[in-house]
Design a protein that fits this description.
The chain is of the alpha+beta class. The protein has eight helices and three strands; from the N terminus they run ααααβββαααα. It starts with a helix and ends in a 5-residue tail after the last helix.
Length: 192
């Protein structure tokens, strides 16, 4: 009977612990972060520069601070190096001196107007780009570039950014793109 009672107590406490963990995780989605900041994640609309800074300060205060509070530029369209439309770009100040890369944050995140579709989409886009900026600010991007080359440094930063999107249930999280970078990381034995 003592063993049965202890089993019931342990099981009950385990159940309560899982409920608490699930509740904590629920509040760490992009949707919840945006709502807690006072915005409806399903609404959208253009935010001016000051409003955008206020939005980011409310939704991602710690991450924005870690990224040294980059400025924002709004563009009609943004394209990547392959000509594909993208929602955002973290600007870097990169140069190669001899055989060494020097990579610093350019202090700017470029946003395409389509990223303002909803505040949830906007937050997911900005969060992704803030992760890239923090990789630059921390010096990790430069370390990776000098160890593995620029292409592989980008892979590692993309893995970090997609990990963020996955963790926080970003509205436009792209699991196949995430997997592509994870596969590259594994194939080339890249380590953070």
């Amino acid at each position: 009977i003592d063993g049965f009672r202890q089993g019931v107590i342990t099981s009950g406490l385990n159940h309560v612990a899982h409920m608490i963990v699930n509740k904590i995780q629920e509040n760490k989605t992009i949707r919840n972060l945006v709502e807690n900041a006072g915005y409806n994640p399903d609404d959208g609309g253009y935010l001016g520069e000051n409003e955008l800074v206020e939005f980011v300060n409310k939704v991602f205060p710690e991450l924005y601070a870690e990224a040294n509070r980059p400025a924002f530029e709004i563009h009609d369209n943004l394209v990547d190096s392959k000509g594909n439309s993208v929602m955002g770009k973290a600007v870097s100040d990169s140069k190669k001196i001899g055989d060494k890369y020097i990579i610093k944050s350019g202090g700017v995140i470029k946003l395409a107007k389509m990223s303002f579709y909803t505040y949830g989409v906007l937050a997911g886009t900005i969060g992704h780009e803030l992760v890239h900026i923090t990789d630059m600010v921390s010096g990790n991007y430069q370390v990776w570039a000098n160890k593995y080359g620029m292409t592989h440094a980008r892979t590692l930063s993309e893995v970090n950014a997609y990990n963020f999107e996955q963790k926080y249930s970003a509205p436009l999280y792209n699991p196949s793109e995430h997997q592509f970078y994870l596969n590259n990381m594994k194939e080339f034995n890249l380590k953070h």
